[in-house]
Design a protein that fits this description.
374 residues; Immunoglobulin-like; 5-stranded mixed sheet; 10 strands; 41% helix
């Protein structure tokens, strides 16, 4: 027992010697924390646009998304500052008042009014500093006044319908997952998804909008809850059946291009196959696209203008319905009008009970009523 006690005392004495030789002074701990914070700040300053690595929010291409990013970074650095202070004091206390240097705890201090006041007022001030810009940003997000283009967006399982209003009124189409992605996702398709460009993030018909224009979306759903989301716009809003939500964004001029998003609400089996793709064009290119879409819709809705007699209107020369029979086509004409026995109904040609009385009389056969009276 004496040997064991001597060994323990020797180890404790040696540990105290090492602590005295290599113990960290408080300034070193604070310096390390400050250096870490400085390195983070320098990294962020050197790469202000490097947000596409998946570790941060995208800055985006709208005023709203940029304001969100700025607010996010402001809150982030406030949290970093709080962490530096809290962990700095913690590390300092652990190093300064460790048992190995003979620190004796003060058991008499159980309450401090000054400390309680400080740790109540300081957090309130921090919350106010964060809440004011956050509230201002929320109000901007909800302000859909003075929009220049409105689009009704309806969610379905599992596709989007876009119905344009205002200057593009009349344009209406569905946007679904592109066929190459839809085929590659099938079990046993034999297609490597890595060979598909923008796999599961491309559609057959994207939403087309102009840059520099305040666009308002009216979101609803025809079945379950969906959510229209494009990260680069800082735009995400739920599409709820029986309810209309509003959302707006304005893409900065010069930021034309393709922007992608997804449905951000679990909406069923194919929730992961309901992408959102927005094609942002210059105002002139958008006007040209609108004209092309309206011209194509007009042409598709009036085939008679292309010379199709099958869908002709009465004004096309038909005294009744504009049908080929009225136009003199014996092949499709009524047998009675064309006098064609080959196309006439046999019952109509021979049965007095079905034939017209006038026709039966003309052929020398008494009308049905006369036959009954006999």
């Amino acid at each position: 027992m004496r040997v064991i006690k001597a060994s323990v005392d020797h180890c404790a004495s040696r540990r105290r010697g090492i602590d005295r030789q290599w113990g960290f002074p408080p300034a070193v701990a604070l310096f390390a924390a400050a250096l870490a914070a400085f390195c983070l700040i320098e990294t962020a300053a050197a790469n202000p646009l490097n947000t596409s690595n998946g570790y941060n929010l995208p800055i985006g291409v709208t005023a709203l998304s940029q304001s969100m990013y700025a607010l996010h970074m402001e809150v982030f650095w406030i949290c970093v500052g709080i962490a530096v202070v809290v962990f700095g004091v913690m590390i300092y206390s652990l190093v300064k008042f460790r048992r190995s240097v003979g620190a004796i705890p003060d058991t008499t201090m159980v309450h401090s009014t000054k400390v309680e006041i400080v740790w109540t007022i300081v957090p309130v001030i921090i919350l106010v500093v964060m809440a004011v810009p956050a509230a201002d940003l929320i109000l901007k997000q909800e302000d859909t006044r003075n929009s220049e283009l409105s689009i009704r967006v309806t969610g379905y399982q599992w596709k989007w319908q876009y119905q344009y209003m205002d200057a593009a009124d009349g344009i209406d189409f569905f946007s679904t997952l592109k066929q190459d992605s839809n085929f590659a996702r099938q079990l046993g398709s034999g297609t490597d998804p890595k060979t598909i460009p923008n796999y599961l993030l491309d559609v057959d018909k994207p939403l087309v909008i102009p840059s520099g224009t305040k666009v308002r979306l009216l979101l609803t759903s025809m079945d379950v809850i969906h959510a229209w989301w494009v990260p680069d716009f800082g735009a995400k809003r739920s599409a709820v059946p029986g309810f209309v939500n509003e959302l707006w964004f304005k893409v900065d001029a010069g930021k034309e291009g393709i922007y992608r998003g997804q449905c951000a609400a679990l909406c069923g089996r194919d929730h992961g196959f309901m992408p959102v793709v927005v094609d942002v064009r210059t105002p002139d290119a958008f006007k040209k696209w609108v004209e092309e879409q309206k011209a194509a819709a007009k042409q598709a809705s009036s085939p008679a203008a292309a010379g199709s007699p099958a869908a002709g209107s009465p004004a096309a020369g038909s005294p009744v319905t504009g049908s080929p029979a009225a136009a003199g086509s014996p092949a499709l004409a009524s047998p009675a009008a064309a006098g064609s026995p080959a196309l006439a109904s046999p019952a109509a040609a021979r049965s007095p009970a079905v034939g017209s009385p006038a026709a039966a009389t003309a052929s020398g056969t008494p009308p049905p009523s006369a036959q009954v009276l006999r």
